[in-house]
Each structure stands twice: as C-alpha cells, then as structure tokens.
C-alpha cells in the first residue's frame, strides 16, 4: 500500500488564494488521477473551505471531533466532485488544534492524499497544520507585503524542521511592477513550483461553488493546478493539444477584454 501524503497549504496573509489552491488541487487529484483525497479545513477560527464547495452549515465538523463530541467519520462528507471533505464550524468554538495530527494519523490508511487548509495568521491553528503535515506549499503573490509574510511563513516552517516543497505564485499578471520569480526565490530560499495566472474564470467558478479545474478544464489556472497535482504525486500530466491551448487562450483573452470598459484613462476593470 502506498503511503498517504499529508500536505499543508499555508500562508500568513489572507486573500492570496490558499483555500482556492486546496480545493483545486484536491479536485484534480481525484478527477484527473483517480486518487482518494480528503480536504481538511484547519482554519478553525475563520473556516471557509466548506463555503467554497457548497457545504454551508454542516451538522458535524472538525470542531466536534477536536472537542471529542463526535467521531471523525461522522464529520467527513463525501462530495459529488469526487473527494471527501472534513469541514470546520462557522461558529467559533474553543478547541485544541494540536489534536489535529493525532486525528489525521487515524485517517492515513483511507486516503492517498490529505490536503490541509490553514489559518492565514500566526496562530496555534497554523502551527497545528504545520506539525500535522508531511510537507508544505506556501501560497504567495508577487507583491512586497505578501512576500514579507511568505518569508515569515518559510522561517516558521524551517524552525519546525518541516519540508517546504515550494511556493505557489498565485494571481500572477505578468506586469513590470510585480516581483520577479527569481527575486521571490532569492528572498525566500524556496523554489516557485507553480505559477497561477490571474483569471476571471477562477472567481466565476468560485461564485458557482465549483473548482475551476472542473468548471473550465483548459483555463490557464486550471492547467497549472493540474500540473501541480501531477507533480505532487510524481505522475506525468498529459498536456492538451496546442490547438486546444490556443483556442482557450483566445477565449480567456476575450473574456478578460469583455469584462473591461474603456475610459478616458484607459481600461478600467469592473465585474
């Protein structure tokens, strides 16, 4: 039996796309590669993993399990998207997050990959996710405030001797004002393993409570999440044909253009 991988997806700045990355990596692993996948919401004080997937108010959650008011199997939900979800409660409850590692140890035989969402702040919740993980991905973006927080997250992980597989550079626009990939790697000492381009389809998919890898399979963000998923399990990703890539590039470019309006100052984005 292959060993289960427990992967923490972290950042210590909100809004960078950490939960979106968890959802899309999980959806790709389950649907593209047929893996048994569990997503766990380790963001106990600000849970939203369930909301990304239409699980709005679950009866039993990770909070109940941590407080020993329910068995872990009672809090796991089988999602129609092909993976399992262990959500947290939307109502803040006192729990001991450091029990997470013990809970996960009981689940390893049931899954090929367990993905952990985490708190976007320096807290016991973040530390608990780090300690429960075999390896970590840090989600960042190409601006200095986020980079500063990313460096801090990397330093925290290294102090705990936890392997950082790499950085996921999210919402990349390819503009001159963005920090280069080389500079990000130099500042953090960690390789950038995936670059998710900024795409309106990601937000569109989110509004439909569906992972973009299922909502628009050949979108640029979808393709990169699927490549990352393949790399995570050391499998080869089958690239779409050049024709399909060009077709989707044109469509994506047109969709971005359609969602702008021309003003005297230039193009102004609006939704």
Keywords:
alpha/beta, Rossmann fold, 2 domains, 8-stranded mixed sheet, 38% helix, globular
Question: How would you describe what is shown here?
Answer:
This protein is α/β, with parallel strands linked by helices. It has 2 domains: 5-239, P-loop containing nucleotide triphosphate hydrolases (Rossmann fold); 240-271. It has 11 helices and 10 strands. The strands form 2 sheets. It has an 8-stranded mixed sheet, with helices on both faces. Strands 9-10 form a two-stranded antiparallel sheet. A hairpin with a 5-residue loop joins strand 3 and strand 4 (84-86). Mean pLDDT is 89; it is low at 260-271.
Total number of helical segments? 11
- Please identify the top-level CATH class of the largest domain: Alpha Beta
Major sheet: arrangement of strands: 3-4-2-5-1-6-7-8
CATH-defined superfamily of the largest domain: P-loop containing nucleotide triphosphate hydrolases
State the separation between the terminal residues, measured CA to CA: 48 Å
> Can you summarize the main beta sheet?
8 strands, mixed
Unreliable sequence segments: 260-271
The whole-angstrom Rg is 19 Å
- Whole-number count of domains: 2
Order of helices and strands: EHEHHEEHEHEHEHEHHHHEE
Residue share in helices? Answer: 25-40%
Give the tally of β-strands: 10
Structural class: alpha/beta
Annotated CATH topology of the largest domain: Rossmann fold
Strand content: 15-25%
Global geometry: globular
Mean pLDDT: 89
Overall CATH architecture of the largest domain: 3-Layer(aba) Sandwich
């Amino acid at each position: 039996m292959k060993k289960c991988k427990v992967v923490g997806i972290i950042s210590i700045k909100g809004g960078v796309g950490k939960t979106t990355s968890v959802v899309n990596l999980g959806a790709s692993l389950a649907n593209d590669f047929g893996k048994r996948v569990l997503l766990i919401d380790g963001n106990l004080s600000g849970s939203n993993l369930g909301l990304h997937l239409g699980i709005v108010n679950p009866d039993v959650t990770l909070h109940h399990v941590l407080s020993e008011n329910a068995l872990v199997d009672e809090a796991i939900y089988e999602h129609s998207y092909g993976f399992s979800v262990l959500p947290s409660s939307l109502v803040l409850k006192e729990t001991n997050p450091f029990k997470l590692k013990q809970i996960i140890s009981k689940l390893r035989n049931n899954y090929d990959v367990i993905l952990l969402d985490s708190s976007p702040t320096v807290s016991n919740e973040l530390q608990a996710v780090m300690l429960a993980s075999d390896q970590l991905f840090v989600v960042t973006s190409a601006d200095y405030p986020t980079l500063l927080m990313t460096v801090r997250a990397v330093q925290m992980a290294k102090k705990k001797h936890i392997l950082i597989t790499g950085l996921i550079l999210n919402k990349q626009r390819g503009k001159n004002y963005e920090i280069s990939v080389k500079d990000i790697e130099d500042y953090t000492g960690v390789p950038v393993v995936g670059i998710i381009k900024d795409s309106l389809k990601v937000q569109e998919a989110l509004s439909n409570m569906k992972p973009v890898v299922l909502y628009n399979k050949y979108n640029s963000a979808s393709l990169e999440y699927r490549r990352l998923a393949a790399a995570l399990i050391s499998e080869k990703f089958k690239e779409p044909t050049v024709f399909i890539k060009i077709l989707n590039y044109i469509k994506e470019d047109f969709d971005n253009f359609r969602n702008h309006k021309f003003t005297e100052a230039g193009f102004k984005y609006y939704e």
